[in-house]
Design a protein that fits this description.
Layout (H helix, E strand, L loop, with lengths): L1 H4 L3 H15 L20 E2 L7 E6 L21 E6 L5 E6 L7 E7 L7 E6 L11 E6 L4 E8 L6 E10 L3
Length: 171
C-alpha cells in the first residue's frame, strides 16, 4: 500500500488512509472480549476451590503484553494470569493443565512488574503425557506473591483444566 501511495500527493495519501479505515483493518474479531485476567497487573487470584481441586478456564481472545517474555522458552501469544499467595508455611506447589484442548505453556514468576519478573518455574509439555498439557512444581515461600501464567504455544487458544496442589514441607 505504501508503494502505491508514493507520488499521489497529500490528497491521494488521505484517500488511501480513508480507504484503510473504511475497509476496517482490525487487530482481531470485532466482538472479541479479552479475559479479565489478560493483563499481568490484573491477575485472577487462584480460588480456594482450585487449590487441591480443578477448575476449568480458557484463554480465548487473550493477548501478549509488551515486555512479556516467552514462557518455557517457547513463543506464546494468548496468556492469562493468576495470582497465588504463599501460606504461612513453606509449601511444594504442583500446577498442571492436564486435559487442555490446546498446547499450553505454563510458568510461575515472582515480582510486581512484568518487565522485571524473576522466573521461578516453567514447562511446555509434561513428560510422558500426550496432548500438550503442561505441569510444574516449585517451592512457595511463606507469604510471598507469585504470578502464574497459562499461555498457548504459538498463540493457541482453548479451554484448560487448571489444578493447583500444595504440600506442606517439613520445617
Amino acid at each position: 500500500m505504501v508503494g502505491s501511495l508514493r507520488g499521489m500527493g497529500r490528497r491521494g495519501l488521505i484517500g488511501g488512509l480513508a480507504l484503510l479505515l473504511v475497509v476496517g483493518v482490525t487487530a482481531g474479531p470485532a466482538n472479541a472480549e479479552v479475559p479479565t485476567n489478560d493483563r499481568f497487573s490484573e491477575p485472577t487470584p487462584v480460588p480456594r476451590s482450585v487449590v487441591n481441586g480443578t477448575a476449568y478456564y480458557d484463554n480465548i481472545d487473550a493477548t501478549k503484553q509488551a515486555c512479556e517474555s516467552n514462557h518455557a522458552q517457547r513463543r506464546g501469544g494468548s496468556s492469562v494470569w493468576y495470582k497465588l499467595i504463599g501460606r504461612a508455611t513453606r509449601d511444594r506447589v504442583y500446577i498442571n493443565t492436564l486435559g487442555a484442548d490446546f498446547d499450553t505453556l505454563l510458568a510461575v514468576y515472582y515480582g510486581g512488574q512484568l518487565c522485571h519478573v524473576l522466573p521461578i518455574a516453567a514447562n511446555d509439555n509434561c513428560p510422558g503425557v500426550a496432548g500438550g498439557s503442561s505441569c510444574l512444581s516449585f517451592v512457595a515461600l511463606p507469604n510471598t506473591n507469585y504470578r502464574i501464567v497459562v499461555d498457548g504455544l504459538n498463540g493457541a487458544e482453548g479451554q484448560f483444566h487448571f489444578k493447583v496442589r500444595r504440600v506442606v514441607l517439613p520445617s
